[in-house]
Amino acid sequence: MLSAKESGNQVAKSILANAILRSIAKAKADLKLHGIIGIITIPSRASAIRSRGRDHIKDLAQLVVKAGKEINLELVNLDLLRMTKKVKDQSMLNQAQRLLNISGAYLALHPEVPINNLIIIDDLITTGSSIQEAMRALSVINLRPVAVATACAVGAHL
To answer: Which residues does UniProt assign to the signal peptide (predicted)?
Structure first.
């Protein structure tokens, strides 16, 4: 995870992208989804993007879309969520602190093309606070993702 996220290691990024793709493919099969699936990324902090020199989750989303084509899974990356306030790095925060930190932090934009099958993606889910905030922001514009896909989920609060 860290090698992909902090160092941009291509092999590690590919492993994460394929894990996310498998999660999406399973959701598609389990939920009997048809047609295009729109993937929505959790936004990164501006300071994290600056320090890495790239947007890790957007890079992963591009790899997921590309890998999806190879298995005839039609995915489109929908860049719908924006950060609206400065948030702290959540890595050292507990669940309550994370919820408070991220509360009200995202704004959802209307998609240019209506897509019914929406899946939120993130590389790592720890407490689910970022996912909860994404769901809140998307619900404001009446979007209801059908699933969340991740490469890794940890923690006792999921």
So the answer is: none
Helix (H/G/I), strand (E/B), else coil: 35: coil
User: 2-153: what fold?
Assistant: Rossmann fold (3.40.50)
Beta strands at 117-125 and 106-108: parallel, antiparallel or unpaired? unpaired
Q: What is the C-alpha separation between 71 and 89, in angstroms, rounded?
A: 35
- Contact criterion met (CB below 8 Å) for 22 and 64: no
Q: Quickly list DSSP for 36-60.
A: -EEEEEPPPPHHHHHHHTS-HHHHH
Kind plus residue range of the DSSP H or E element containing 73 = none
* Model confidence, pTM: 0.86
The structure tokens 């939920």 sit at: 31
